[in-house]
C-alpha cells in the first residue's frame, strides 16, 4: 500500500477505525463497562464513565437511514464523478449506530429502510484517497 | 409564565448593513466591516470610539482588536465568538453581547459578521472546512448542501413532510425580496416553473432550495435598555436568547437522535421558558434558511407547526407580510435578500420592529431570529418593541 492511502487520523478516538479500515477488517468501538456502542468514537463513556473502550469486528449489514444523490460537481468530487449517491446506514448489530458511504451498483429500490451490505473501498478526494465504505442494495 | 429578569435589559440601538454581489465588494473585508459598524453607530447617534465590545460567529476572520485603529476605540473590554463553522451561532452572539453588558464587563457591544470572498473565500467552503473530516469526505460529502440534503430526505421521505412546503417557503422569501430595493432579487419574484425545473444540486435540493452567497458586512450595536432610550432610534429589546445543543445532537457524524430536525429542540424550549412567550406570541420571524428544508425544520422545532400540520402552516399566504399569520424573512432572507452568513436577518429583525422594513408588518411587537438550522450548535433569539 502506498502512502497516499494511509489514513490521516490515526491518533484520535477513532484512530483504530481508520487502521482497521485500511487493513480491510473494519472495527467499531463498544464500552466494555456498559456495553454501549459509541459513534463517533469516544475516549471515555459519557454514560457510565468508563475509559475502557474496546474495538470489535463490524458487521456491515444494515438499512438505509437516509440518502442523497449529488449532481452538482463540488470541487474535489471529480474522482468520484457525479451523479453519485451518499448513504447513511444504520447498523442494528451495533446498537443502530450509523456509518456513511457511497452506494455501489444497482440503484433501483433505493429508499429509506432498504437493506444494504458494505465493503471497504477508497474514495478519491482531490489528490487524496480516503479509506471508506461502499454499500450495495441487497437483492 | 413570566419572563426572566434578564429579558429586555439590553437593546439594539443601531444597525448597519453593506451588501454587494459576490466578489464585488468595493473594499477588502475589514474596510467593509468598519463601514457597517460606523453605519450602525450613526444609526444610533453613537460615537464609534465608544464601542467597547465585539461579538461574532461562524469563524469570522476579523479579530476585534484589529478594528480599533479604524474605529478610534478607546478601550476594548470584550471580544468573543460563538463556536461553530455555520450560521448556528448568529443568535447566540446576541446572548454573548448581552451577557457582557448585563454583567458590566462592557457597555456598548457590536455584533457583526463580515464576508468578502477575495479575503475569506467561498463561505460554503469555509463552513465545510470547519466540519470536514475523512468520514464525510469518504462518503462524497463535500459541501454543506449534502448533509442538509440527507436530513431533508429523511424529513420528506420518512416523516412525510410534503415537498410542496419547501416551494411555499422559498416563494415567500422571494415575495419579500422582490419588494425590497436592497435585496439581490429586487423586482424578481420566484418563477415557479424555474423552481420546479432547476438543476439538481443534491437531491432533494434543486438550485433554488439553496441560499446565495454575497460579499458584505452587517453590524448591530447593543447597549443597556436605559442607555438605548437616550439614543436616536426606538430601542429594540432582546427579550430572550438561547444557544447550544441538547444531548443527542451535535457534531456526531450524522448520528443525531432527531436527525431530520434542525437541532433546536433544547434551544427553543429554553427560549420559550426564558421569555414566557409561546409561538402564538410571535408576530414575525426571520428564519435562517441555508436550505429550504432546514427552514421548515426550524419552524417545526420552534413549535409553530408539526409533521402533521406542516402543510397547513407552511403556505405562501400564511408566510407573507402583512396579511400572513407568521410572515417570515420579510427582507427576502438568505434566498432572496442576500446571504452574508445570515447577519441580514438580524438587521431585518430590528428594522421590522422599528417599522423600517421594506415589507412592514404593522403593529408587530415580537420577532423571532432563528439561527442556522442543522448546525451542531444552534441558537435563537426573540426581539421585541416593549420590555416585559
**Main beta-sheet annotation of chain A:** 5 strands, mixed, barrel
Rg from alpha-carbon coordinates of chain A: 16 Å
**Structural class estimated from helices and strands of chain B:** alpha/beta
Backbone CA Rg of chain B:
19 Å
Helix content of chain B: 25-40%
Q: Helicity of chain A, in percent?
A: under 10%
Distance between the termini of chain A: 33 Å
Into which percentage range does the β-strand content of chain A fall?
35-45%
What share of the residues of chain B does DSSP label as strand, in percent?
A: 15-25%
The CA-CA distance between the termini of chain B, in Å, is: 12 Å
The counted number of beta strands of chain B is: 11
Q: Helix and strand succession of chain B?
A: EHEHEHEHHHHHHEEEHEHEHHHHEE
Oligomer: heterodimer
Element order of chain A: H for helix, E for strand: HEEEEEEE
Main sheet strand line-up of chain B: 3-2-4-7-1-8-11-10-9
**Quick check: average pLDDT of chain A?**
93
In short:
By secondary structure, chain A is mostly beta strands. Chain A is 6% helix and 40% strand.
Amino acid at each position: 500500500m502506498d502512502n497516499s492511502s494511509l489514513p490521516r487520523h490515526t491518533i484520535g478516538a477513532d484512530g483504530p477505525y481508520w487502521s482497521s479500515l485500511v487493513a480491510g477488517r473494519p472495527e467499531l468501538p463498544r464500552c466494555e463497562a456498559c456495553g454501549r456502542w459509541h459513534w463517533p468514537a469516544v475516549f471515555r463513556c459519557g454514560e457510565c464513565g468508563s475509559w475502557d473502550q474496546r474495538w470489535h469486528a463490524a458487521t456491515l449489514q444494515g438499512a438505509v437511514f437516509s440518502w442523497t444523490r449529488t449532481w452538482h460537481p463540488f470541487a474535489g468530487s471529480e474522482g468520484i464523478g457525479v451523479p453519485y449517491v451518499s448513504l447513511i446506514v444504520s447498523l442494528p448489530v451495533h446498537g443502530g449506530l450509523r456509518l456513511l458511504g457511497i452506494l455501489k451498483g444497482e440503484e433501483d429500490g433505493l429508499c429509506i429502510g432498504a437493506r444494504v451490505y458494505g465493503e471497504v473501498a477508497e474514495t478519491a478526494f482531490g489528490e487524496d484517497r480516503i479509506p471508506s465504505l461502499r454499500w450495495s442494495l441487497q437483492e | 409564565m413570566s419572563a426572566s429578569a434578564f429579558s429586555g435589559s439590553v437593546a439594539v440601538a443601531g444597525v448597519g448593513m453593506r451588501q454587494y454581489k459576490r466578489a464585488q465588494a468595493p473594499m477588502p473585508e475589514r474596510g467593509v466591516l468598519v463601514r457597517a459598524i460606523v453605519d450602525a453607530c450613526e444609526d444610533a447617534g453613537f460615537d464609534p470610539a465608544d464601542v467597547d465590545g465585539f461579538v461574532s460567529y461562524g469563524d469570522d476572520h476579523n479579530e476585534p482588536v484589529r478594528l480599533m485603529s479604524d474605529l478610534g476605540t478607546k478601550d476594548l473590554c470584550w471580544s468573543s465568538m460563538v463556536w461553530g463553522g455555520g450560521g448556528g451561532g448568529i443568535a447566540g452572539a446576541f446572548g454573548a453581547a448581552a451577557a457582557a453588558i448585563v454583567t458590566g464587563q462592557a457597555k456598548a457591544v457590536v455584533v457583526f459578521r463580515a464576508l468578502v470572498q477575495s479575503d475569506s473565500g467561498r463561505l460554503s467552503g469555509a463552513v465545510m472546512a470547519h466540519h470536514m473530516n475523512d468520514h464525510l469526505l469518504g462518503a462524497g460529502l463535500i459541501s454543506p448542501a449534502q448533509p442538509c440534503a440527507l436530513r431533508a430526505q429523511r424529513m420528506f421521505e420518512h416523516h412525510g413532510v410534503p415537498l410542496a412546503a419547501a416551494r411555499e417557503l422559498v416563494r415567500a422569501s422571494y415575495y419579500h425580496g422582490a419588494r425590497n430595493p436592497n435585496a439581490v432579487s429586487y423586482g424578481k419574484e420566484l418563477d415557479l416553473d424555474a423552481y420546479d425545473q432547476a438543476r439538481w444540486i443534491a437531491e432533494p435540493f434543486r438550485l433554488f432550495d439553496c441560499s446565495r452567497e454575497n460579499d458584505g458586512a452587517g453590524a448591530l450595536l447593543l447597549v443597556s435598555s436605559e442607555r438605548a432610550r437616550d439614543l436616536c432610534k426606538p430601542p429594540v429589546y432582546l427579550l430572550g436568547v438561547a444557544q447550544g445543543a441538547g444531548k443527542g445532537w451535535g457534531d456526531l457524524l450524522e448520528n443525531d437522535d432527531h436527525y431530520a430536525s434542525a437541532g433546536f429542540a433544547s434551544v427553543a424550549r429554553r427560549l420559550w421558558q426564558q421569555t414566557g412567550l409561546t409561538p402564538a406570541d410571535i408576530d414575525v420571524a426571520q428564519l435562517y434558511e441555508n436550505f429550504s428544508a432546514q427552514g421548515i425544520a426550524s419552524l417545526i422545532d420552534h413549535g409553530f407547526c408539526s409533521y402533521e400540520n406542516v402543510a397547513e402552516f407552511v403556505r405562501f399566504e400564511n408566510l407573507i407580510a402583512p396579511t400572513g399569520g407568521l410572515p417570515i424573512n420579510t427582507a427576502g432572507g438568505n434566498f432572496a435578500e442576500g446571504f452574508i452568513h445570515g447577519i441580514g436577518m438580524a438587521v431585518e429583525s430590528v428594522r421590522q420592529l422599528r417599522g423600517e422594513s421594506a415589507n412592514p408588518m404593522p403593529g408587530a411587537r415580537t420577532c423571532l431570529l432563528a439561527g442556522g438550522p442543522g448546525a451542531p450548535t444552534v441558537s435563537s433569539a426573540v426581539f421585541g418593541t416593549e420590555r416585559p
